[in-house]
Design goal:
By secondary structure, the chain is an all-alpha fold. It contains five helices and no strands. α1 crosses α2, α2 crosses α3 and α3 packs antiparallel against α4. The longest helix is centred in the middle third of the chain and has 24 residues. The protein is flat. This is Transporter family-2 protein. Keywords: Membrane, Transmembrane, Transmembrane helix. Pfam families: DMT_YdcZ (PF04657).
Length: 119
């Protein structure tokens, strides 16, 4: 929720630029300390680029929504989104994962989550 506070003070775009700059600085420092890029793959996997863009979008959306609707609804929506996304990824076997069908017991877990959230 620190990002929400920074977003209120500097604006949402200022927050994104500031946090991204800090992340790049930390990554650069770690690469400099390793003194070798041997553990890194020199090719860019397409889903890594998508994950980076989605991460920035989630960070921006979370900090913006927290300022508008509060922390608890944002937290509930984040967990719900993660549950839906993981179900889709498992069901279709995206990113090389084995396909796991979405069965009724999985839906019971979702029902339990939503019933607790909205009780």
């Amino acid at each position: 929720m620190m990002n929400a506070h920074i977003g209120k003070v500097q604006g949402q775009y200022g927050m994104i630029i500031g946090v991204s700059t800090a992340q790049i600085a930390v990554a650069s420092f770690l690469l400099w300390r390793m003194k070798s890029a041997s553990p890194l793959q020199l090719q860019v996997v397409p889903w890594m680029v998508v994950a980076g863009v989605l991460g920035v979008g989630i960070m921006f959306g979370t900090s913006y929504a927290t300022g508008k609707i509060g922390t608890l609804p944002v937290f509930v929506l984040i967990i719900a989104g993660q549950m839906i996304a993981s179900s889709v990824i498992d069901h279709f076997g995206i990113m090389g994962l084995p396909e796991t069908l979405l069965l009724f017991p999985n839906l019971e877990v979702y029902y339990l989550y939503w019933s607790v959230c909205f009780a």
